[in-house]
Automatic annotation (TrEMBL):
Annotated organism of origin: Nocardioides antri
Protein name: NADH:ubiquinone reductase (non-electrogenic)
Lineage, broadest ranks: Bacteria, Bacillati, Actinomycetota, Actinomycetes, Propionibacteriales
PANTHER family registered for this protein in UniProt: EXTERNAL NADH-UBIQUINONE OXIDOREDUCTASE 1, MITOCHONDRIAL-RELATED, NADH DEHYDROGENASE
Similarity-based family: Belongs to the NADH dehydrogenase family.
Residues covered by the Cyclic nucleotide-binding domain: 435-520
Superkingdom classification of source: Bacteria
InterPro entries per the UniProt record, alphabetical: cNMP-bd_CS, cNMP-bd_dom, cNMP-bd_dom_sf, FAD/NAD-bd_sf, FAD/NAD-binding_dom, NDH-2, RmlC-like_jellyroll
One Pfam family in the UniProt entry: cNMP_binding
Assigned EC number: 1.6.5.9
NAD recorded as keyword: yes
Keyword NAD: yes
Key words of the record: FAD, Flavoprotein, NAD, Oxidoreductase
Reaction catalysis annotation: a quinone + NADH + H(+) = a quinol + NAD(+)
Broad EC category: oxidoreductase
Length: 553
């Protein structure tokens, strides 16, 4: 056939799983081949936008508008095709990918000649009990938007809260993970909160606000430990000056609605645990019969091709790509970018009958913002500190924003901020209640006597005591276990809680909001009859319901 493809043949079909950095640079690399008709590239992603994580901390703190860290997929990938759907399965024998549309699950089958696996990573929700229910994630745009609104809600509630213990919970913020992401979020938050307390929230004393950075290693910024320890020392000094409490050598062992339990025995009262550490890989990798490394990443050779195949490639967080200087490439966006570019070049070389070239990108440097217009960075071995490093950090990340439209938007946000202040609008994107899972540790109260009831609970694992506070002291009413439910009396009769329910072991519950519970009870007769039986209420109620009840404890 020769080196060039025949013009009367169909184009080579390339399917890319995932719409992140690898996909963007793959599309750019193959642009000319697509325009010539040699290649048909289809990029599959459940989101029709790309999130730029470099400015997450600035988005959370109002320096950058939320939508300005996203870029529309249909302006990123042309002339490649974009397929907005959920990836259901991959059949490597028949060389097909099955997707389902988000509306109703209707499936579609895509055929490929070359498959590019660029699935990225997800948050690891198995690291400690309660992380899935009570920790705030920073992986997806919806997660980030939720965190932004949550932070503003804590300030709003904190300013008007008169109970000292609850006020402390509302104004205490824990960031888990001392890598680049965690440090940037923690330092930006402290600066942000203190600015808002001075200018926008007169009812909050800046000294009331606590930001804690919890890191399992002995020193923060482990990404710099091997080659740039001096930068870590500077960062540690700046963080200490900023008032952030850094807890190294410490892990979170459990998260609940009201507190974080640490490995050193500390219990921190808080409503805000922000997770910026620990990633897991997409379960879609399990559908493909290829070798994985000890971290579960798909192993590739130096050409970014999966060994034993001639048509499967991988890059980004989900791939164990050999680093030119030894080891494997870190899970950093720039390696996904250059990996996608090299895969595109190698696919084109393969089409032309030429051998692929190895991946030779060894990195440019690193940068980490420390808030207050300070940062640490290094570029090709040269170290920068303070304001010069911060300028370099901003310019570096701004340059890699994938569209000029968003670059202009972000630049405008930066220029307008000093004149008009930061955006502090908190949007409630979801009802505060509904059906959700919650985790409680031994000794914690799920509900307290005297509270206004807005949820009913069903225990899925663990045990709890129902305790009635009387003038003579606490009275044990009953003990509950898996399958038992409580809280229904106050919800259906619109009364205050008549007892406290306290966990006697690690407890998992399903909570159902008042509106949802009433709707189900009115619609499904069996459900309504079950929850209205009130099996856990005593025959005699020593706490009158016609007057406020003082909460137990």
């Amino acid at each position: 056939m020769g080196g060039e493809p025949m013009t009367d043949q169909r184009p080579v079909r390339v399917v890319c799983l995932g719409g992140g950095w690898t996909a963007i640079y793959l599309a750019r690399s193959l642009k000319k081949a697509i325009e010539r008709g040699d290649v048909q590239l289809t990029i599959v992603s459940r989101d029709n936008f790309h999130t730029f994580h470099g400015f997450i901390a600035e988005m959370l703190t109002g320096k950058v508008s939320p939508t300005n860290i996203t870029s529309p997929a249909r302006r990123l990938f042309p002339p490649a095709r974009f397929h907005n759907a959920e990836i259901k399965s991959v059949d490597v024998d028949s060389r097909t990918v099955t997707t389902s549309r988000l509306l109703d699950g209707k499936e579609k089958v895509l055929e490929y000649d070359h498959l590019v696996v660029a699935l990225g990573s997800t948050d690891d929700l198995s690291r400690y009990p309660g992380i899935a229910q009570h920790a705030l994630q920073l992986k997806t745009f919806s997660d980030n938007f939720k965190v932004r609104n949550h932070l503003l809600a804590m300030l709003e509630m904190g300013e008007i809260e008169t109970d000292p213990a609850e006020r402390q919970r509302l104004l205490t913020f824990i960031v888990v993970g001392g890598g680049f992401g965690g440090v940037e979020v923690a330092t930006e938050l402290m600066d942000y909160f203190r600015r808002l307390a001075r200018k926008e929230y007169p009812g909050i004393d800046p000294d009331e606000i606590r930001v804690l950075l919890v890191h399992s290693g002995q020193r923060i910024l482990p990404e710099l430990a091997a080659r740039q320890p001096k930068l870590i020392g500077y960062a540690e000094k700046m963080i200490a000056k900023g008032g952030i409490e850094v807890l190294t050598g410490t892990r979170i062992t459990a998260a609940t609605r009201d507190e974080a339990i640490l490995s050193d025995g500390q219990v921190i009262q808080t409503r805000s645990i922000i997770s910026s550490s620990g990633t897991a890989l997409s379960p879609l990798l399990d559908l493909m019969p290829y070798d994985r490394d000890e971290r579960g990443r798909m192993i590739t050779d130096e050409f970014l091709q999966v060994p034993g195949t001639d048509n499967v490639w991988a890059a980004g967080d989900c791939a164990a790509v050999p680093h030119p200087q030894g080891g494997t490439c870190p899970a950093v966006a720039i390696y996904g970018m250059y990996g996608g570019r090299q895969i595109g070049r190698n696919i084109e070389r393969r089409i032309q009958g030429r051998p692929p070239k190895p991946f030779t990108f060894a990195g440019l440097g690193d940068a980490c913002s420390l808030g207050r217009r300070k940062a640490v960075s290094h570029l090709k071995g040269m170290r920068f500190y303070g304001l010069p490093a911060w300028i370099l950090w901003r310019l570096f990340f701004w340059w890699f924003v994938p569209t000029w439209e968003r670059k202009a938007d972000i630049a405008f946000d930066w220029l307008a901020g000093p004149f008009f202040g930061r955006d502090i609008v908190g949007v409630q994107v979801a009802a505060p209640y509904g059906l959700r899972r919650e985790h409680y540790e031994t000794g914690q109260a799920v509900v307290r006597q005297g509270e206004v009831g807005q949820q009913i609970y069903v225990i899925t694992a663990g045990t709890a005591d129902v305790i009635r506070e009387t003038p003579e002291g606490e009275v044990l009413v009953t003990t509950l276990g898996p399958g038992d439910h409580f809280g229904e009396k106050s919800v259906f009769e619109r009364t205050r809680r008549t007892a406290t329910v306290r966990a006697t072991s690690p407890l998992e519950v399903l909570s159902l909001g008042e509106n949802e519970a009433r709707a189900l009870a009115e619609t499904i007769q069996v459900f309504g009859a079950a929850v209205k039986e009130l099996p856990n209420e005593p025959d005699v109620n020593p706490a009158p319901l016609d007057q406020p009840v003082t909460p137990a404890g």
